[in-house]
User: What shape does this take?
Amino acid sequence: MKLYDKELSSFMEEGRQISLFSIALPKHLELLLSYAITTVSTLILSGYSETATAAVGVANTFFLLCLQLTHMISLGVSIVMSAELGRKNRERAGRIAGTGFFLAILICVIFLLLSCFATEHIIKSFSLDAQTHPIAVSYLRIRLATTIIPVLQSYISTLLICNGFAIISTATNIASAIANALLCFFFLYSPSVPAFFSGTDGVAYAAVLSQVLPLIASILFLWRLRCPFRFRFCLPEVTRILRIGCPAGMTTFSFSLASFLTTGFISGLGNAAINAKTYAQTIMQFTPFSLAFGQATGVLVGRLRGQKDFLRIRALYRQNLRFTTLGNLLLSLIAFVLHRPLLSLFTTDETTLLLGGTILGIDVLLEVARAINHISENTLNANGDTVCCFLTSVLCCWGCSVLLGYIFAVTLGWGLTGLWIAYTANEAFKAIAYIIRFKSGRWQSKRI
Assistant: This one.
């Protein structure tokens, strides 16, 4: 049995070869470099203030939850557009891309209203101390008000990847991450920075400004490469995008919502627990080998679905499960073995180091299950079986991450360790459910 079959994992389109690795490797490189630069930004922020680190960590939990709403649009467009490209219907693929663009802008307007009226109430729910609370409020207000830049950058990158131009998406996103780290350092430590851009407010502005030029470049590439795109809003395509995208996007939205709520469980334990979670998750960003390969699997399966090649879909699914599970296991083990020197890059606080090391140990099991979920979710979603993923994600997130998380972390007093055990149970139950669903073959009858 081959670990990787090149013929199984590639196809020809518009005179060029598109393969699993041609999509996944640039995306994986982008993720690794972006995470590395994000880690540098976290180091810069932690050196500036532990309080600021906690405030930004909490605010970003809610902000990322908001971004998941736009992810539903991107995911729906990606799935439907891949199927249309598999059917060689570029005209309709272009209408789908344009309609999704206008839907993403509409959601950004909602975020703008949130920044004006609801930021204070949102941060209050975390019960932060008097010093951390106002910093978190100010940071979140800026991020929500300027959401249109990261949202459009993410959406255009999705279109480029869907059309097989993952390397361009990689280059623009890496440039954005480098600019973000440089601007963070400048706004935090330069004495000549205006008060308007100083402190953690400057960190928020850096995140936005760093994406302006990459966004412009992405739009230009989308136009020059003649990717299918019609600058028009087609109401009939809205139903199709939302019918596929909303259930599919609820997988990551449920996870982000659970993370948002469970952060509240530990916020009362002090900044050491919050920072341990922030630092450990920064390291964990490097361990999911399966994330990029799951996204690439979705693109390939979407094309195969358009051709109704179900046997090849099954073979591709089994192959990708094997090597992504192995990759996640090896990387998470390395992170656990090296946890103390890695965590020591961020802090010298012994309590934070012990908590971070414990959850990195538990995370080894979590990442194995997560590899199965990344491949399974993208495969099922690309076949239009989005409702199954939606129900599985909601039931597991609320039954395990939230309910068990509260019992373990708060009722039993296990704190951050109990929370990570609940997270692991969530991923494990999802993995079992997805494998059962795929083997049943019911996804083959779904309509896209």
